[in-house]
Amino acid sequence: MTKKDHTIKSEETSAADNKHAEKAHYKAELHKLQIELVKLQRDIIRKNEKILVILEGRDSAGKDGSIKRVIEHLSPRETRVVALNKPSDREQSQWYFQRYIEHLPSAAEIVFFNRSWYNRAGVEKVMGFCSDDQYEEFFAEVNDFEGMLVRSGIHLFKFYLDISRDEQKRRLESRKDDPLKQWKTSPIDEKAVKHWQDYSAARNIMFARSHSPFAPWMVINANDKKTARLQLIKGILSRLSYADKDEAGVLPDSSIIFEYNPLYLENGMIQA
After folding, report:
1. Could you say which EC number(s) this protein's record lists (predicted)?
2. What CATH number should be reported for the domain holding residue 65?
């Protein structure tokens, strides 16, 4: 083996060792946080509390995988994931928020909305699936609606997974070659890339018009899926009180997860 070959092999070995160490660290950290989630759920059940977590983001932002890690060890009887299909003709004739109401958490429940009523502020607006009047009516009502939820005793959390344009392209391309992800592919994928700027503009308006003191938007830099999952869990745990809480262990990284501020659109913390 030449000196050059030896150097290349050493570099490859070192990279593999680093990757293995990173994977081990992620699994250990995830395990600790999942224990905290079980502690939290035990307290939620004991106190009959109601938790609603909204997860939004572009196509391929990592919503499915993030929710999967959060609920992995939670009680299926008190944990629900809501991912609604496009509305039926009957639902389209109803008040916009009506079909979401039946899925809200009851006492002792944690409910995750994998996309939510904010479809109207995002994909429906960009793809022309709603009228301008329907769009404006949504924003005229959404803060009052969420205020009613909070006043009724629901702990409401809104998270937006933020990824770069290049990362979205890479993830959408990888779906095409992965037989286990074929169910995720759709004609909307190509349009998501084509309408990147339109989705950015719609997202920015959504933040500006629906960020409130009682229901703030939390943004997570999700270019690294594993880091985003850990920070999402910490974002939930850190904002709730429960018995035997590891305060230091659930402290989020404010450079990865942070409350929306319009300044972050200018300094690059939120993807343009």
Report:
1. 2.7.4.1
2. 3.40.50.300
